[in-house]
Amino acid sequence: MANPLRGEVVKLYKNLLFLGREYPRGEIFFKERLKKAFMKNKDVRDPKKIQELITRGEFVIKELEALYFLRKYRAMKQRYYEDNAGS
């Protein structure tokens, strides 16, 4: 019998892999950590615990998106306000 949450877990893993491409410390570093985290929890069978882990993963996605947005904002700000830094 397949776990009904399996699809959500696979979707979460794929989303995190996609977001990890721009990780500041490198894509390989991110992939290794991601795989390690998922392998650590591969034997979890309790649906409530799986749902908690999915929720934690969704939080990580939001944090990564915020990190990337902030990085892009800073880069854009430096381009436009570079001359006023000395004032």
UniProtKB/TrEMBL annotation:
GO terms for biological process: negative regulation of oxidative phosphorylation; respiratory electron transport chain. It comes from the Eukaryota. InterPro entries: Complex1_LYR_dom, Complex1_LYR_ETFRF1_LYRM5, ETFRF1. Residues 8-61 form the Complex 1 LYR protein domain. PANTHER family: ELECTRON TRANSFER FLAVOPROTEIN REGULATORY FACTOR 1 (PTHR21024:SF0), GROWTH HORMONE-INDUCIBLE SOLUBLE PROTEIN-RELATED (PTHR21024). Belongs to the complex I LYR family. This is Complex 1 LYR protein domain-containing protein.
